[in-house]
Design goal:
2 copies of one chain form a homodimer.
Chain A: H1 9-12, H2 20-27, E1 34-35, H3 72-85, E2 95-98, H4 100-112, E3 118-123, H5 127-135, E4 139-144, H6 152-162, E5 167-173, H7 185-198, E6 201-205, H8 220-223, E7 228-233, H9 234-238, E8 246-249, H10 252-263, H11 271-280, H12 284-307, E9 317-321, H13 330-340, E10 343-344, E11 346-347, E12 357-361, H14 367-381
Parallel strand pairs in A: 1-10, 3-4, 3-5, 5-6, 6-7
Antiparallel strand pairs in A: 2-8, 7-8, 9-12, 11-12
Helix pairs in contact in A: 2-13, 4-5, 4-10, 6-7, 12-14
Chain lengths: 383, 383
């Protein structure tokens, strides 16, 4: 039993930041720093959509509580957006504003999980999903999928093999973090039909929906609106990660349960962050994303070519097996060697059973610096 | 088992907002509106500490992720503040910045609760605490205390009677929401010694620490630093509720576990909100609070006198038994009658087993409007 001075057993399995151990090495570098370990952007948000643009005089109550499920005007704009993007008629009752996609996915899992319920997570996966399932006392089940599935049929075989009597949901991230892959629409269609057959919820993490360079992004909610939660974020889309504003679209009948989790974990999404999102929804956000996408595309492609791997299809990451470069000390020692050269990379085990991979974000530093960082990495790898 | 289309049984017990049912009645009022149901302030934050004062040029990375446990400069300022206020030497490792006290208390409970663990909650209580315990799959146990305990000895008797083998923590809110009472230091000392004897964690909700009008606020962390989590907020203190920024101070050994919950529920406290708090920590916040306190004090006292109840000792609320005014339809009908006259009140059952009470916030509207609202309430009550 967790009792003073102990904490709950359930949280011991959750990873703390693996990066803090490397931070001091990076900090002691004298040269340029390449922060490829985080998923972020070096770009500031669109002009007019920054904190300094939000005058208290124009926004009465800017520093007071917002409605926990979202400002009415923002909910309306997001319902209209989801109607167009998902091609599903969407009402404000289907939408929940959240503290980033993290807060939104927490709200979903907090609403649907009882202790011990299992969530199938297509791997490699966004590192926080494993811990969010555990935080709400569920059991994450990593299902190696990207790079394994080869067709709609094999996609279904893979998830069906992992399913048990305790499985309640399937988590999908596409465009994928960390692999940069875009899961083909036909595969998503097969997974949606399988979830329907098995009576499962679907969590569709689409925070990189605007960052597709090749292939086509399909919305799972278009395919199974009755059971799909779409998680979106302005963090990645519009360079507002620090604002902590995202949203979830899902079946109205259960959105009140998600709202309860929001109220009891962070109460409401920051009012100014919602106001900034609302301003950006007038077209400035989408214009920013279109420009950022064209900026990111050649950077990711060039980095991939330099490392001799396939160019990314989407998202803001490269996923790289560094097994040939690992000597004694394995991945940990490799990451230390990188950090000593100013280069931070995220370790494969944060993304599932990948002891020799690293994830590299090519959008967290300006393009020229990023190119120099990948040159340095190629040298470390002997490529 | 929670399975599509159902949600988790654990969340069904959590109250959704009771206010939404009354909102349309309030909205259809033609006259002045008295929003006494929320805990908020009508005042804007200190000048220089608003969103419009945060220029991206001065704050590089203002819209990018902050460190999940808090910006280093903010952590340092808060550790120094806790050292002085709690009279306990406090390091940055003892501090966690959170999405308001709500996010901080969620981080505490997420870190210490296993399913079924019980938390003793001194009642009447802050309405969210019950649901936060449930959100992290624990069991809240309401312990009627304020208005019942009469001495340090009876305080201990009351909590000891409620303790079971599953009890892991005691939750205390003082200055108290909703009663406006300040729990005497000698009672807190007795509770701290009891928690030590019984091996329990202590959650001390001190978001109204700056709003004491009579009596003395004692910090439980001063009395039992090894087992006490102090939850603080800039929401109430400095009129920044919409920013969602607060902090927790507790034993360094377990703060990493709290940090994991933060990362997996909202990732980090909004960067701009942390920057605003840091600016206000230069003295402007405390000056604001001193001025707000002198503004609130006579408003609360006058409202209490008008209703014929004791003047508040602290916080921003009056707690009122309206039993004599309840006719057929009980409290629900009474709240509807109030709403029809533009007056919103929070229902007693949100605060524990109080079927005939209401909570009234006297700081959410300007003093003159508040006085008119209480005049109207007195008329409804026939006082």
């Amino acid at each position: 039993m967790p009792r003073f001075p102990h904490t709950a057993e359930e949280m011991r399995e959750v990873r703390a930041s693996v990066f803090s151990r490397l931070a001091h090495r990076l900090a002691s570098c004298s040269g340029e720093i390449y922060p490829f370990h985080v998923g972020d952007t070096y770009l500031d948000p669109a002009e007019g959509c920054r904190m300094e643009d939000l005058a208290t005089a124009d926004w009465p109550g800017l520093h007071r509580y917002a409605a926990p499920r979202g400002m009415p005007a923002l909910l309306e704009a997001l319902a209209a957006r989801a109607t167009v993007r998902h091609k599903v008629p969407t009402a404000v009752e289907d939408v929940l504003v959240s503290a980033g996609a993290t807060g939104g996915i927490g709200a979903i899992l907090g609403a649907i999980l009882s202790p011990g319920d299992e969530v199938l997570i297509l791997a490699p996966f966004w590192p926080l999903i494993d811990g969010i399932v555990r935080t709400f006392r569920g059991t994450p089940v990593a299902v190696p999928f990207l790079g394994v599935a080869e067709s709609p049929e094999s996609a279904v075989e893979i998830v069906e093999r992992a399913r048990t009597a305790r499985t309640v949901a399937l988590y999908v991230s596409t465009p994928n973090n960390p692999t940069g892959r875009v899961i083909p629409p036909t595969w998503l269609g097969a997974l949606a039909r399988w979830a329907e057959l098995r009576g499962l919820w679907i969590l569709s993490d689409e925070v990189y929906e605007d960052y597709v360079y090749r292939g086509e992004h399909a919305y799972l909610r278009s395919l199974a609106p009755e059971r799909t939660f779409s998680a979106h974020s302005f963090s990645k889309a519009w360079g507002m990660a620090g604002n902590r504003c995202g949203y979830v679209v899902g079946p109205a009948a259960v959105m009140e349960a998600l709202g309860k989790v929001v109220v009891h974990t962070f109460y409401s999404t920051p009012t100014a962050s919602q106001a900034a999102a609302l301003r950006a929804l007038d077209g400035r956000g989408d214009a920013w994303a279109a420009s950022a996408r064209e900026c990111y595309r050649p950077v990711g492609a060039a980095a991939a070519r330099r490392l001799g791997i396939a160019e990314p299809e989407g998202s803001q990451f490269l996923w790289l097996d560094v097994a040939p470069a690992l000597g004694e000390g394995g991945l940990e020692r490799f990451l230390e060697r990188c950090a000593d050269r100013g280069l931070a990379a995220a370790p494969g085990p944060s993304f599932g059973p990948y002891p020799t991979h690293v994830r590299l974000c090519y959008t967290a530093a300006p393009p020229e610096a990023t190119a120099r960082g990948f040159e340095r990495l190629a040298a470390i790898l002997g490529r």
